[in-house]
Target: Cytidylate kinase
Amino acid sequence: MEIGIQIAIDGPAAAGKSTIAKITANKLGYTYIDTGAMYRALTYKALKEHIDVYDDEALSQLLSRIVIELSPAEEGQIVRVEGEDVTEAIRSQEVTSNVSAVAAQPQVREMMVEKQRLLANSKGVVMDGRDIGTAVLPNAELKIYMTASVEERAARRFVENTKRGIDRSMEQLCQDIANRDKADMERIASPLKQADDAIFIDTTSMSIEQVADTIIQHAEKRKGR
Model:
């Protein structure tokens, strides 16, 4: 039986990481893990319980007592918190606006990294996020850093929001994404950056299938080593 490899995909908001990671995992027969959904799930629960999204201690205590489940589904993944299906709820504008603050808390990140490493214990996994190649899976056989222009990412997020019934203008989305980039890159704990050994892919002018196929080609080369 062929032993798979670990594929770490990092990049800024709305770069297409989750979509590409799902397709890549499906084509390779690997397990897909959306770490961003874990931070969103914690943010959702914190907002619901009126916990300050800048309170590292309170957030860490919350994270230690709740169960976040990621289950494979036809569309990619179902996210549950304490048994509640929050797959759509964690994509709300309120969660999106607060998740960077939650993800920036050092103790929260430390706990999340431990959880994420446990999920990726077995080989044959595609994990996407902001610090996968640099902090969560530093020894992954294949690391990808995926990005696109702010305008392109805003356009993608606009399409997603329209499907979900979220009213947000392109101008607002461009500003949201620029702010998110700044917060992710400047945070103290595991800031967003390209790992030294990561392959850089600008997806601005590429189709979803082109990006997935590019990653799969790199994965096949790594598997052959």
Observations:
- The chain has nine helices and eight strands.
- The radius of gyration is 17 Å.
- The domain at 6-214 is CATH 3.40.50.300 (Rossmann fold).
